[in-house]
Design a protein that fits this description.
With about 230 residues, the chain is α+β, with helices and mostly antiparallel strands. The chain has two domains: about 50 residues, no CATH class; about 160 residues, no CATH class. Helix content is about 35%, strand content about 25%. It contains five helices and nine strands, in the order αααααβββββββββ. A five-stranded antiparallel beta sheet has the order 6-3-2-1-9, with helices on one face. Strands 5-4-7-8 form a four-stranded antiparallel beta sheet, with helices on one face. The longest helix is centred in the middle third of the chain and has 23 residues.
């Protein structure tokens, strides 16, 4: 596949942002994001356009039932109620664009109820293709506090490594190994600066981490959410 074609890159970026790019195609595009500045720019443009679209529409306060469904989806819990929400399609599509950040904050509060959100500078949520939350990342001034979700089914013969990609650089920087269960603290790399980070990525590695200082198999990518 020729990723140098602008129209192809734009189409893939749009599908990636909207969540309709799945399977092997999504994994290939995630690997491309680690090395292609053009791909990351296409992602940024799509996110900006969709955010502008959402902000141009009058905000609607979701009902308590909608918030309950968001939390249930994050936790992958069965519905407690049979009630069906009838929402206008256009409004729901708009809400889906702006709900991502809210879902991340809600997930953080659900999984870590004791965390004081006002003391958090940035957070990130790593999800799989089924939108299941796998790791929750809380960034403070000194370190990254990472908690593995109960939904994570970790491979015992592999490790998971966290990487960051800085603006203007194509080479990922390792931040350390992620926990397979429970929590873990990773000290900040001296180059860690939220305003300069384009992307966070999780790779699957041999036990002990990457053997060559580069991601072996990129599984997931996500962004920092500034609070």
């Amino acid at each position: 596949m020729n990723y140098n074609k602008p129209e192809l890159l734009d189409a893939l970026a749009g599908q990636y942002v909207l969540g309709t790019l799945r399977g092997l195609a999504r994994k290939r595009f995630q690997r491309l994001l680690l090395t292609s500045h053009q791909a990351r720019e296409a992602i940024s443009m799509w996110e900006q356009n969709l955010n502008n679209l959402a902000s141009s529409i009058t905000a609607q306060t979701p009902s308590d039932d909608v918030w309950q469904q968001i939390i249930q989806r994050i936790e992958n819990q069965p519905q407690q109620s049979k009630k069906v929400i009838h929402t206008k399609p256009s409004l729901w599509r708009t809400w889906s664009f702006v709900a991502t950040a809210a879902c991340i904050v809600l997930a953080f509060l659900v999984i870590q109820p004791a965390t004081k959100i006002e003391n958090t500078q940035q957070i990130a949520l790593v999800q799989n293709q089924d939108k299941q939350s796998l790791w929750f990342i809380d960034v403070n001034e000194q370190a990254l506090s990472i908690k593995a979700s109960s939904q994570l089914v970790a491979q015992t013969n592999k490790d998971y490594e966290l990487w960051m990609i800085l603006k203007g650089q194509d080479t990922p920087i390792s931040l350390g190994l992620l926990p397979k269960q429970g929590g873990k603290i990773l000290l900040k790399d001296k180059r860690f600066n939220a305003s300069n980070i384009t992307l966070l990525a999780v790779s699957l590695e041999p036990i002990g981490g990457s053997p060559n200082g580069l991601p072996t198999e990129v599984l997931y990518t996500t962004e920092l959410i500034l609070l």
